[in-house]
Amino acid sequence: MNASADLPIYEVLPELRAALDAQPLVVLQAPPGAGKSTALPLELLNAAWLGTQNIIVLQPRRVAARSVALRLSELLGQKVGETVGYRVRFESRVSARTRITVMTEGLLTRLLQTQPELPSVGLVIFDEFHERSLQADLALALVREVQEALRPELRVLIMSATLDPALPARLGGVPLIASEGRTYPVEVRYLPTDPQGPPGAALVSAVSRALEEHPGDVLAFLPGVAEIRRAQSSLTERHPEISVLPLYGDLSPDAQQRAILPDPHGRRRVVLATSIAETSLTLAGVRVVIDSGWSRRMRFDPASGLSHLATVRVTRASADQRAGRAGRTAPGVALRLWSERTQAALSAAFPPEILEADLAPLTLELAGWGTPDPAQMSWLDAPPAPKVEAARELLRELDALDGNHRATPAGLELLSLPTHPRLAHLLRGGERLKLTVLACDLAALLEERDPVQGAGADLTERLDALRRFRSRAPHRGDAAVLERVERLSKHWRQALNVGPDNSPADPYAVGRLVALAYPERVAALRPGEQAQPNTQAQSRYLLAGGQGVRLPDADALAGTPLLAVAHLDARLVQGEGRVYLAAPIHEADVQERIGTQQTVRWDTRTGTLLAQTERRLGAIVLSSEALKVIPAELRTAALLGAVRQEGLERLHWSDAARQWQARVLSLRAWRPQEDWPDVSDEVLLGTLEDWLPPLLGAQRTRDDLARVDVLPGLHSLLPWPKTRELDSLAPTHLSVPSGHSVRLEYRPDGDPPILAVKLQELFGLADTPAVNAGRTPVLLHLLSPARRPVQVTQDLRSFWASGYFEVRKDLRGQYPRHPWPDDPWTAEATHKAKPRGT
């Protein structure tokens, strides 16, 4: 089957065959044009270990799957669907004779759910694996589990032009086969400085220059469909003799093929593409690549539970992939519309999608697979735990997971539909509510681009445009987008066995369905908000998930008490997002999700507890009334929160409490080998639940908290034996020769405690008193009869020998009625003055 035996892949074919003979998992690195996608699968059909089994070739995109299947069939001189076929969502070209099926990665995970052993498959090929799509990572993890548990003879081949050099080792030390390939030289050029303004403006001028200066077709990369359309309009007007064609994922298969194949009339072509054209596809005749340097990627924010498209700089790896398109069939040139300085600052590659994406589909797939804990799977990069938890929370809202993170019967039903769990829940809910046709139309609209941009947020307007388009009546909106929406809706109608409906849609029925897909995005108008028509003001809403959103007051939906929001911009402006697509909803339509909750919280403004019984829809409080009797556990939790928020100083700290804290911290510093607890303010604040609750009772205000004595709670932190040790090792008072018991002042940093005592009370004492079983001398503050410090020392013996006499000389004239003996070593200690007249 070597119809293209001159391809570079044939040079490594013997080595690759030998590796697959001996190993179940092999990695192949081969540059673009080497033939790894369009020749290698045919050559592996006759492998002895394959026998009569089939090959699955995975591609990251539908357009690539169709294109690869077409090319493989051409090499065999057959039509697609004979030896080689393809499967993409809602489209299948296979037959009983098909041995090689090219499919998108998500379809393999769906196939594994119903046929986990892949009984008729002998080889799974992951093509363009460097893209590290979420579905590719999931499919690889599932297939490796199948190899380990069910099918050790199943082969897996991972292929790409650019791979992480550490990949073979990360897969367990599997063989790496490398093909040098055969590419033509590509001259890479940069701009002196980065252009200003939108990416399309500079690109249109660059295309015009390239058409004048270079031969061959032009492939130009732009971030998205809107930029492609604007550039297509400008270039068609400037160059009517040139065929200007778009290439992006939402195009029809026929339109995609027109962009891939040479012009049937022999005209030069300019293909305007998204990043879909970076890999897999070979566009015949392309000699010039013009790269805007931008790409559009979906970003998921687990804090808000929302995803948004972000326009970001390409990476060095992406730029190299794009430039390589110019050297597939002849020498070419790549014009990068940025400076060399910017090139040096580009990231090496995008992070794997599994680290950034919405993980709800993956989480549900794993639950359906029987592995609710992703940590049990073998991943190249494990899905981040916060994103998994956000996905679980959503799936529980959709009734797709139970409390143990396992798929419910409803969750398994959602898995049967090839779409995001949100939209699957909308479709199944539409069946249950007898709104199936409306659900099909709405699901299709929500998957596609907005066909009526600039029309406000009302989804009902989009449904009206779709239904008028379908009935061939005059309509608003982009006909190309509406055609795609109708095609997708038709797929859903066929899958659910219903016909079309072109009658006007009920806006509240639309809202009811949207709330099924986006339960956390039911939005209530904030109290006191009132739409002001014909102004630039914004109506402010609160989502059930807790985020604030806004809607321009000029919008027809502004001021609607309750909305179901489908699309919004999660990028916050003044802490709030913006609603883009929504529908009104009745409170009765979300009644099953409304609950009654007793809430007790601390009002920092008034310094009091607020206790209420609330009817809530998530974070939305629909109504409330005062709670007369506060449950003890709620009161305690709220008071702990108040102290945590306002600080420990809000409580009553007696001198005894502070000294107890300092004594324990001193022993912790002096005796690090022993288990004296950390009772610093920072730790106490972080462990309030361990010691403060028994001290709390009927407090409701800041004044009440200020009367809470912390000392009994601190005592509870030391077991009884430690309490005895504390009193022994760090006593509160020391007896001095005068007979007085003098209070010690401990310091929390472990410095020696201070003993402030009148000098005359220590006559006859030779050595400095000590604590900590005699290991830590106290710091003596020797006081005058008026209790003013006259000396600070830790060496009492030296003081009596020398310093005392200086002090005696200075003070005996001031305090003649107090003893100032010549020999302090033998004098009697006293705290009294001499009697008058003596």
Automatic annotation (TrEMBL):
One Pfam family named in its UniProt record: Helicase_C
Keywords for this protein: ATP-binding, Helicase, Hydrolase, Nucleotide-binding
Keyword presence, Transmembrane: no
Alphabetized GO MF terms: ATP binding; helicase activity; hydrolase activity; nucleic acid binding
Record domain Helicase C-terminal: where: 202-370
Region (Disordered): 816-838
Keyword Hydrolase belongs to the record: yes
Domain called Helicase ATP-binding: residue spans: 17-181
Matches recorded under NCBIfam families: DEAH_box_HrpB
Protein name from the UniProt record: ATP-dependent helicase HrpB
Protein's organism: Deinococcus ruber
Lineage, uppermost ranks: Bacteria, Thermotogati, Deinococcota, Deinococci, Deinococcales
